[in-house]
Amino acid sequence: MAQQEEKTPVARNRDNRCSGPFKISDHPTHYLSAAEYTDIPEMVRVLNLDKDIYNGTASFQYPYLESHAFTRLENAYIRDNQSGYTTCWAMRTSPDGPLIGWIHAHFLPEDSGTRIHPETRRELKVGVIGYWVSPEHTGKGYGSRAARFVVQEYLFKERGCDIVRAEAYTHNVPSRRVLEAVGMECEVEEWTVFIPKLQKEMVICCYAIHRDEATKSVVTDKTKDP
């Protein structure tokens, strides 16, 4: 019987824009740089320290396996290499230091012109962020600093987004504080959604920040977003 060939992992294009490292704070020292396959062992260790991140998100599994991390990175590299932009970064305390958290950005799909700028009538570009911080490093502002940088410097300035959105479980106060520290406002306070991994309904809230005042009338649409 012929041996099955091993699949070659999708490599990250080192020429992708916005890969970093970006120094976003001196005290404490805080860098963002592209997440790498070499971060997988630390991702697995951190995400298995306790169930806080599992409990606070809709997608993470527990226990978190190397295969979960590998698939997450490989899928990100496929999209990034197509667009030419990095979209997933590790939070670090030095340019090449171990991962202490994660932040990513993606874009809501275009819906045939259903998101329109109220003044210019062009289609809006809507970004979304997600993040987590190691339980060993919470309470030090890493999440807020990373989110602020990705929203302002990457999504608004580099990618030209009009609106950036994020969601959290209504009861997840630390995550909500991160979003509020970035300048986001709660658009939907209570939205009941089914979470497949939990096999039950949970209540989430939806936040947004707008690049200009003109789009503030374009709020989260429960039939399409987040």
List key phrases describing it.
GNAT_dom, acyltransferase activity, transferring groups other than amino-acyl groups, N-acetyltransferase domain-containing protein, 226 residues, single chain, 8 strands, globular, 5 helices, Aminopeptidase, alpha+beta, 8-stranded mixed β-sheet
What features would you describe in this structure?
It is built from five helices and eight strands, in the order ββαααβββαβαββ. It is α+β, with helices and mostly antiparallel strands and 226 residues long. It has one domain: Gcn5-related N-acetyltransferase (GNAT) (Aminopeptidase). It has an eight-stranded mixed beta sheet, covered by helices on one side.
The value of Rg in angstroms is 18 Å
SS class = alpha+beta
Mean pLDDT: 93
Could you describe the largest sheet, including whether it forms a barrel? 8 strands, mixed
CATH topology (fold) name: Aminopeptidase
Percentage of residues assigned to helices? 25-40%
Which overall shape is indicated by the principal axes computed on the Cα atoms?
A: globular
First-residue to last-residue Cα separation:
48 Å
For the secondary structure, the number of strands is 8
What sequence of helices (H) and strands (E) makes up the elements?
A: EEHHHEEEHEHEE
| Total separate domains | 1
Beta percentage is 25-35%
The tally of helices reads: 5
Q: Please, what is the CATH homologous superfamily?
A: Gcn5-related N-acetyltransferase (GNAT)
The low-confidence parts are: none
**Architecture in CATH?**
3-Layer(aba) Sandwich
CATH class: Alpha Beta
